[in-house]
Amino acid sequence: MAENVITARDLDLTFQTNDGPVFALSKINLDVVEGEFVSFIGPSGCGKTTLLRAIADLEKSSSGTLIVNGMTPERARLARAYGYVFQAPALYPWRTVERNVGLPLEIMGLDNQAARIQRNLDLVNLTGFEKKFPWQLSGGMQQRVSIARALAFDPKLLLMDEPFGALDEIVRDKLNQQLLELWDRTAKTVVFVTHSIPEAVFLSTKIVVMSPRPGRIIDIIETNLPRKRSLDIRETPEFLKIAQRVREGLKAGHSYED
Amino acid sequence: MMRALITFTLLFIAAISSYFGFSLVEPLQGSYWLLSLIFVLLSWALAWAIGWVVDAVLAIMKAPIRLSNFLVPALFGLTIIIAWEYYVKGSHIPLVLLPAPTQIGAKFLSALPILGADFVQTILRAVIPGWLMGCGAGFLVALLCDRNDFLRRGLLPLGNLVAALPIVGVAPILVMWFGFDWPSKAAMVVVMTFFPMLINTLAGLNASGHMERDLMKSYGADWLTTLVKLRLPAAMPFIFNALKINSTLAMIGAIVAEFFGTPIVGMGFRMSTEVGRQGLDMVWSEILVAAIAGSTFYGLLTLSERAVTFWHPSYRK
Amino acid sequence: MRIDAARGHAVPVAVVCLVILVLWYLAAIPMNAVVTQPKIDAAGGGLYNTLLFSWNHERPVLPAPHQVAQEIWKTVFMVAPWKVKSLVYHLWITLSSTLVGFVLGTLLGISLAIGIVHVGSLEKSLMPWIIASQTIPILAIAPMLIVVLGKTGLPDIFTKASISTYLCFFPVAIGMVKGLRSPDKLQLDLMRTYNASAAQVLWKLRFPAAMPFLFASLKVSVAIALTGAIVAELPTGAVSGIGARLLQGSYYGQTLQIWAALFVAAFAAATLVWLLGAFERMSWKRMGVKT
After folding, report:
1. What confidence score (pLDDT) does residue B36 get?
2. Which helix (H) or strand (E) holds A14?
């Protein structure tokens, strides 16, 4: 029986700002099972990044329960339960690629560092780039290094916040495919934030549609597309039907209005 | 190529004639200002032309080094010195007002032992130890302020205020407290270098981005690990900026402090007494020593900065 | 919000100042011991006598804060400002050469910057020297410059102002060069599509873009100019000006005189920087910058 990696019950998160309270998350109920690929999709301000950050203990919830790997988010963070990939590569420019990938290993004091670094660079198809510096790589390659770094210490959970948002469409397609293969090979649980409907439908086993003001879940869609997919699947009727359902959820949440 | 050749030849002729023309008019009195000015302008134009020519030649040869970037200012400086020499000699300006470069050079060589003693007293005993202590103290207090937000909010505005004040004024007080010898000068350097280091280090510690710091949080890293692996490397450009500024401030502090009392050795002491004795060639020799010492200090810091902060965008074309 | 931000800093600054004040009073006791111990012993020792003599000595090694305050009060408010005994008189002497030097230095710096940005060869020949000259301790050659310029027969205020000019001119020049070069390539291309002349580009684009850099340099320059004016008074054995007061106090062991002059100079420097800051905020309002 696959376990729940993430459980959220009646989760609320309110920010106190100078212009009054902002209800970033309101009554969130969510289950993420081991091995799933879950996407959060919605317009800006719907709380998808906030929810991801709450799971990562980078934000504190105001009320409700949130359990990650059977622990509170804070304990999970201190137990190094997840790898986080940001919107930008956030590589340290004074470190080579291999030392960047090795950063979490150094901090956590893990052994076998060289082998782990090599294995993860191979996973993202960047063998041979170990001694390069971040600015010598393209944006797509830097982001791949960032993913290798997140996987370096072998966490069960991978949290990704619009990792391919800054890249052009062609690079994005390639990376989507590589990410899917990687997920298939490593059997990790992935939570992925995006604002691109095709990307969400292509990658996920479960899509969480969110809407703003206040941030809440409108719909949770289980996709039944085959696990091994190619980019051609984006033209099939099943794909389009799911995309249509996502779009309807967004409309219902007033995401297309001002 | 033809353009280069023609320009070069024309300006070469202009330079030669200006040299000869100057020796021709030497017997004449007056209007040395005008002649010197013309000489300087011609030589400057010549230097520019040589630089441009070398540039063109190198571009044709596809040489990687921008030699003209070095040649032009060097030639410009050289012509100023030559013009200075001619102007002083030609107008028979008294030594008491402005010595000629050759006189300064002669004095420099003959007074090397005295200059050396002054250098040891001021640079080695006051500037360097004071700079090390002041920068070190500023750095440590910045770390303390980083740890304790209350201290930071209290100290930073004061630091910004003190940095704008004429710190030089505390020199007489320091002489009163630490005596005439080098300790009071070192203390002056510490006072002058402390706050720029504090302000810049704090700015540098805040320079690391939010994402990079969230990354460290996601690894469960503590304050010290985050400091050593992220925030200090990211702060290096700011820290080196302060170290370079402080190298200049340190020299100013030590020398000016000597105006307020010192044993019979030291660069500031020598400068002020020689001014009183009208030995301006000695003063200029001391200035030369100060310039060399200051430039070397600054140059070494710039080299280390390059080695440590090689990754900074300002080094990429 | 603004009030929150002020409250955020006001309390810690006040606490730090209070701690400094307390430490100052306490430090005065051991530091003055050298001159006060005989008097304390003569009066019979004890805490009251120790405090009394440590904090009220005529020529203390470390004057107590209230002594400094008294001296400032005496020489600023109790004497007519045009009398030689008044600190205001001395401050004015120093400030006048500061301001002359500051204005001249700023004008020179801006002109040089405009020249450098528009004439390539000027930059190549001058910039390396400008940067190299920053490594020479200019303040240290002040004595010689003063003496030499004094012989040329210029009025005193200009010889002193020359030091301030020299000190101001470089930060302003370098800051302005950076500022005049700061506009985006896109913004410059727009000007080219309008076929704007170099002067128009300078006035309509480069200058406004350079304002932040200019103000940052001005604030640094005015403080340096004041320091330069003070140091310029030292070598000639001047009898008037803040630097002169510092020198006299140092020669005659008049500690209180030194401290009073120092505080008044510090206050003047802080006021000048604050004034520039206010002027800056006014310009930001007119230029629509978010504050």
Report:
1. 63
2. strand A4-17
